[in-house]
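Lecture notes, part 5. Sequence design as translation. It can be helpful to think of inverse folding as translation between two languages: the language of shapes and the language of residues. The source text, in structure tokens, appears below.
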């Protein structure tokens, strides 16, 4: 096992810089997830750690050794690809053993490692099968087994579950987490799926346009997003964003027309009497009868999902749109009115110009 250190890492293709000075220390045995939308640079960053992309600037260090100029095969990392990358003419045993064979490892040691990995991944009964005879989940386990047998210092996962159906993704997500808990190998995992990120990662690197906009635990990123982008990317349905104005005394925000909501604490003087973006997560509303802090919502549409219900509607004379998520089944009718309690401790403020978080 080893730690991984990224020190002001940059990547350019010609004159176009696509990775902008990312720094992060990944601890020995940590499972860190690089999360972001398509095209944000997350796979490029992973490939630079693997050595498959050259680094334009900065340093990548693995186990204390700077590896910028070291070939991928010499970095002692193992990578699981999105498309499995299995040899179709080889059976499962040989797919898992091939990398060890070309390194000249003894046959008995190869057999021991392959059987050990097959036992962990429940592949023992499939060792004689070819990839075409396996399900998608089984193929992905073979790809993971090929990494395990190498006993690397670092695992690298490049969107390994994106080709699987929803049920298999849940199953494989649990298997990857159990595998990490059993082996304890430092792991870097790339995904655009926030559910994978929240359930797998010890910490997240949230990327946007080649920049690491927030690094923190899943709960930190969910509870205190550093920017409006992070707030909108994490959470499903996405956070509600409303135009607002902070009061002169910094204790309230006004939304729509004369709807005033108390802030959890007094706002700093530099954001008083100015415009802001108010963020409220759909799951943080509560339908109430009377009393408390209220928003009156006019229902437009309802989606009953079984375990919970999504309600879409409008508040205030300005018809600001809101989505709320309620537990259980609620069959509200269109144009019905709902009174909502607003959890003041769950309010988020963002700068309307650069999207940064405004602390209150």
């Amino acid at each position: 096992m080893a730690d991984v250190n990224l020190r002001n890492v940059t990547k350019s293709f010609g004159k176009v810089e696509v990775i902008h000075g990312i720094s992060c220390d990944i601890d020995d045995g940590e499972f860190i997830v690089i999360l972001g939308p398509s095209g944000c640079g997350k796979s490029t960053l992973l490939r630079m750690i693997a050595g498959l992309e050259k680094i334009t600037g900065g340093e990548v260090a693995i186990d204390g050794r700077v590896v910028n100029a070291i070939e991928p095969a010499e970095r002692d990392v193992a990578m699981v690809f999105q498309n499995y990358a299995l040899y179709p003419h080889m059976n499962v045993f040989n797919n898992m053993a091939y990398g060890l064979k070309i390194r000249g490892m003894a046959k008995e040691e190869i057999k021991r490692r392959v059987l050990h990995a097959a036992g962990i991944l429940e592949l023992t009964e499939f060792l004689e099968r070819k990839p075409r005879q396996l399900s998608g989940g089984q193929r992905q386990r073979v790809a993971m087994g090929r990494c395990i047998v190498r006993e690397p210092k670092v695992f690298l996962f490049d969107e390994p579950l994106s080709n699987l159906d929803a049920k298999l993704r849940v199953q494989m997500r649990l298997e990857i987490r159990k595998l990490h808990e059993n082996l304890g190998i430092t792991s870097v995992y790339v995904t655009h799926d926030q559910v994978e990120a929240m359930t797998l990662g010890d910490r997240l690197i949230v990327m946007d346009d080649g920049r690491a906009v927030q690094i923190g635990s899943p709960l930190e990123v969910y509870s205190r997003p550093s920017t409006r982008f992070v707030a909108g990317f994490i959470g499903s349905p996405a956070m509600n964003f409303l135009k607002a104005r902070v009061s002169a005394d910094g204790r309230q925000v006004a939304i729509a027309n004369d709807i005033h909501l108390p802030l959890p604490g007094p706002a700093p003087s530099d954001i008083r009497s100015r415009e802001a973006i108010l963020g409220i997560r759909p799951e943080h509303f509560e339908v109430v009868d009377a009393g408390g802090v209220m928003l009156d919502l006019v229902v437009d549409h309802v989606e009953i999902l079984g375990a919970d219900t999504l309600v879409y509607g409008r508040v205030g004379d300005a018809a600001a749109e809101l989505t709320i998520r309620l537990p259980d089944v609620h069959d509200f009718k269109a144009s019905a009115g709902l009174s909502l309690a607003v959890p003041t401790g769950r309010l988020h403020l963002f700068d309307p110009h650069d999207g940064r978080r405004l602390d209150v």
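The translated text above is only one of many valid answers, since several sequences can fold into similar shapes. The CA atoms of residues 82 and 160 lie 4 Å apart.
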